[in-house]
Each structure stands twice: as C-alpha cells, then as structure tokens.
Amino acid sequence: MKAQIEIGSDSHGTAVPIDIEELLATRLLVQGNSGSGKSHLLRRLLEQSAGLVQQVVIDPEGDFTSLADHFDHVVIEGAGYSPREIEALAGRIRQHRASVVLALDDLEVEQQIRCAASFLTALFDAPREHWFPALVVVDEAQMFAPSAAGEMAEDTRRMTLSAMTNLMCRGRKRGLAGIVATQRLAKLAKNVAAEASNFLMGRTFLDIDMQRAADLLGMDRRQAERIRDLQRGHFLGLGPAISRRPVAVHIGEVKSGGKNAAAELAPLPQTGAEEMGALLHAELAEEAAETVHRPPPAPPAPPAAETLVESIAKKAEERAPVGQEAATAMPAGDIDSVMRDMAAEEGATFRPVSTQFRDFATRCRERGIPSAHIDMPGFRRRFAFASAGIHQLDDEAQASIERMAQHVADDVLAPYLAIVVAAARGQGTPDEDHLAQVYGTASPGRIRRLLEHLERTGLIVVHEDYGGARTITVPGIEDVLA
C-alpha cells in the first residue's frame, strides 16, 4: 500500500510528500495566525490520507464537516449527546475504525473543552484489541491544551490537559497519532507541543511565536524573519515524516470547503439611510421584550375587609339555607374546583402557603362549601395536584398518579406532578419556566437543584446532553400510560 501523500510543492514546483507511517509514529504540530491557511493545510492532509488511515477530527468551529460530502466521514454533533454517550461513541469509533468529525460549534467554549476531553480520554482508554492506527486532528489546540489557566474552571483545565497530554505523549503506543494545530505556540502547553517531531509553520507576526517556531525548525534569529513574510497557504516544514531540512511548502488544492471560509465581496443593499433606519427599528421593542426575563408577577392584593364581609353577606342571602345534612353531602369536587380556580390565577404559586390556605378557607365559606376537614398539610398537597393540572387526565390516570405521589415530600410535590402529568399527556419534558411557575420560584438555579434532588431520590431520571437539551423520564409512568 502507498504510504506517502503529496501535501504540496516547494519553491521549484517539486512535490513535497508526507510519509503517513512515519507521521503515525512521530506526530505533527501546525502553527499559523488566523488567515495563514492552517485549516486548508489540515484539510489537504485529511483528504489525501482519507483512504490510507482512520481519521478523527476535533472540530471546534464546525469547519471540517464538509469532509462527509466527499469521503466516508461520520459527523458527530457534540451538542446532541450526553457525556456517557460521547464516551460510548468514542469506544465504538475505535472498535469499528470509523473516520469521524466531532463538531463542537453548537457548544459554549467550556462545554466544547469538556466534551473534547471526554472524547479523547475514551479514545485513549479503548481496549487493547482496538488499538488500530488513527490520525487524531485537534484544531485550535490552544483551547484544549492552554499554557495558562485563563478563565476556564480549574477542574476543566486539568481534565483537558490530561487528555491532550495522553494523546501526544502516550497515544503512539495505542495507535493514536496526534496532529495539533494552533494560532499561537506561546498559548499552547509546552509538554503537548514538545512531543511533536514534525512541524509545519505558517505566517506569524509576534516575536515570541516567531522565535519558538524558529527554534523548532532549527533556524537562527535572522532566518526567523522568513516566517513573518510567508504568504497565505505557504508553510515551512521539517521532520522525519516531511524533510530532514526545513523546506518551503505551498499547500495543494482541496475538494471540500469550510463553511466558515470568508465570502467574496458582495454589493451592498441600495437602501437609503431613512429606510434602513426604519428596518432596524421596526418592532424592536416587541422583539426585545420577548427575550427579557420577566420577574414573577406580584401576588394579588387581598381584598379589603369591608368588601369581603359584604361579599360574604350577599352570597349568604342569595343562597338557600343549607342544613347540616346537605352540607355534609356537598360533593368533594366543589373543593377541587376552588383549588383549580386559585391555581389558575396569575402569581398564585408564589404566595406563602399560609396565605393560600386562608384564601382557600374564605372562598369555601363564600360558596358554602365545608372545608373544616382539610388542614394546611392536606390543602398543600391538594393544591399541588391542582397546580400540576392533574384534572386534565382521566380518572384512571389520576388514580395511578396519586399512588405514585403518595411518598413524595410536600415541598417538591407540585413540580414532580407537573413532570408526571406532562409525561402522561405525551407533552415531553416541561421547560424550566413552567417548573419554576409551579414551584413558585424565579431562580433557575433552584430548579436545577430541584431536579438533582428528584433524581437522587429516584423519582425521575434526567438525561442532559452537552448542548443543554434535557430529557426527563419518570419511573412507573408506564402504569399510567397503560
């Protein structure tokens, strides 16, 4: 099998090869400022070697997903999977020798780093029988192996440095050949950069990066000035897989294209300033209002005492006299209707339980409904059922849910029931805003802690992927749906 590929040509037009077998043993470091052609170089390398060796690409910008249009690469959107799924996918990738692109562009920076670290660690920890040779390309490597702590959490930094160090230092014995590309050598951890024996250095302007690049290429300070003058797509190469002496390389053409490539100039719209201003400001307030987090509504003010007395007296006159026998025969559904009316009012769940209970007792007296047999704990549980909308289900489903909720604590009953009712109605997972309204809070953090508590106690199972999408499963819901 042919083990060499053509990466480009030198200043004389002679082809410059890269020995893939040697590259697998000696790794590669690519440096170049933004716009130097670094991604184009990686794309050329991947395209030329696609039929020779398995390839795994860590792609923080989604720039290499177009490889799937021309080759057999599988694109994995990191935002759509949980940490455990990412690890399982990495294991299957090594087992089946699949070439993949892990696209992380839909994640925030720290989530990108954690996802990539979990993925690389799982590649590294694959069973010995799956140690097949593979090129592992990490673009923007300074993100995943920073030389300084920066703004990421310390546990995230330790996690990603460990994964990148394992890839570059110990990966060779496991068949993993790291190819790391960075905009700045000074920002890349030295123990990661030092493990590469092959170098392709593109244009860079900062003295510290030029000097480090020149040192790696074995050039003196005067020769280092060449690095500043390199054109886009031109690199200086050195290493056992490329050349024993520094060679200037003009990277060849590629088939696929990056979705983030700079577009050509296009004509500006022929719109006057007045018309453009109107377009910019049209319905601006409405759009801004939709994205602003609204605080919870203030609880309704209690009615004045005089008004309340008059209202009670008026309803008593309109009502026919009710004896004790008739009162005890009053259907329980009337109490539930009072609960539902209270729960439907805006801001009802944000009021203290004691205030809700007094309001409930007053409404029952107004309607002539006996409520003395319901104490505050009993009211709290029944109000939780009303707030969750359990009355929207049929009688059999309501009975099943009531059995499921028998041992659920009063303070978390309402949001738990909201999750169960949504699952029973086939509506999926309630969003945080709905759970916050039922729970009577405006704190997203409190909702996250609530879900963690419900999961620890075994009431729900939470599945959350790197992109933040959350799915909640309720054990025992099958009985309700049956």
TrEMBL record:
Residue ranges of every copy of the AAA+ ATPase domain listed in the record: 24-214
Keywords, in A-Z order: ATP-binding, Nucleotide-binding
Keyword Transcription regulation found: no
Keyword Nucleotide-binding carried by entry: yes
One Gene Ontology term of the molecular function aspect: ATP binding
PANTHER family: HELICASE MJ1565-RELATED (PTHR42957:SF1)
Protein's name in the database: ATP-binding protein
Organism for this UniProt entry: Aurantiacibacter atlanticus
